[in-house]
Write a structure and sequence with these properties.
Elements lengths: L15 E7 L7 H11 L3 E13 L2 E7 L2 H12 L6 E4 L5 H11 L6 E3 L14 H11 L5 E2 L3 H8 L7 H13 L4 E5 L7 E8 L2 E8 L9 H16 L2 H17 L22
Parallel strand pairs: 1-2, 1-4, 4-5, 5-6
Antiparallel strand pairs: 2-3, 7-8, 8-9
Length: about 280
């Protein structure tokens, strides 16, 4: 966290951030990663759980979606009692859950970051076609920022995965035309020594890049990045500032990931690298 983005009690209250996502029992992704990120970035974290998973650092073995009515009850319970300053949305189980969220988000005025968790690391689809359609048409226009990786971006626009930065920009522009307010296209799947991300909105495009870090411990990077953006956005009020700060945070979290010893597959990033000695 940089000094410019670190909140202080004297200038503003601690922001309350909500994650709407699935649970990862291994702690590297999902609501567990989101809550760690909120805390590390200076916010108070809350959660609405959309589904349970059986997973570890080697993969996802099972998914148990929660009923849409119970997802709604969790959300409504928070809305009636607690000020919510920003929302991050991750794994959504089905179209009925998306319809419920869309109805409630239509009246929400704070930052909303949508991380479209659609495809597993191995390439398998995590949601069916009706759910993809509902996400694209009902939820996408309500999010202040959508953060797809390249396979997710390709799925959202119905094309093959981008292989170049030019194709990445073209697909991000198509997603903007579909109703997204802003897009952060994550280019980690591109080859090369640097990782390029593209921030695109109606004001224009900007590229962010960092050197690629040689580590297998990248589980939950998308969850962590989107949660960091939501945290910094709720605190600063500026999306560009938030994305830059979050890009720095995730780069450092990946860079310190090998300090942890979690599992035998793709381990988690180090969410508390700046706090743990």
């Amino acid at each position: 966290m940089t000094q410019a983005t670190q909140p202080t009690q004297a200038t503003q209250p601690i922001r309350n951030l909500l994650t709407i996502a699935g649970s990862d029992p291994s702690g590297g992704a999902g609501i567990q990663a989101d809550l760690k990120t909120f805390s590390a970035c200076g916010c108070y974290g809350m959660s609405v759980i959309t589904g349970l998973t059986a997973q570890n650092t080697q993969g996802v073995q099972a998914i148990h979606p929660l009923p849409a009515e119970f997802v709604a009850q969790q959300f409504d319970s928070l809305l009636t009692d607690i000020r919510i300053d920003g929302i991050k949305i991750g794994m959504l189980s089905d179209a009925s859950v998306i319809a419920i969220l869309a109805k409630r988000l239509s009246d929400f005025n704070g930052p909303v970051v949508l991380d479209p968790v659609m495809i597993a690391k191995g390439g398998a689809a995590l949601i069916d076609s009706p759910t993809q359609h509902a996400l694209r048409n009902q939820l996408l226009p309500l999010a202040g920022l959508v953060t797809p990786n390249l396979p997710e971006l390709a799925t959202l626009v119905g094309q093959a995965e981008a292989q170049t930065r030019e194709q990445m920009l073209d697909q991000a522009e198509q997603l903007l035309a579909l109703g997204a307010q802003a897009v952060l296209a994550k280019g980690g799947h591109l080859s090369g020594n640097d990782c390029y991300d593209l921030l695109l909105n109606k004001q224009g495009a900007s590229w962010l890049h960092q050197p690629r870090i040689a580590t297998a411990n990248t589980h939950g990077t998308g969850c962590t990045l989107s949660s960091a953006i939501a945290s910094f956005w709720a605190q600063s009020g500026d999306l560009t500032t938030a994305v830059a700060a979050a890009k720095h945070y995730i780069t450092q979290a990946i860079g310190h990931a090998d300090q942890l010893q979690v599992g035998s597959g793709h381990g988690p990033t180090h969410h508390f690298y700046q706090w743990w000695s």
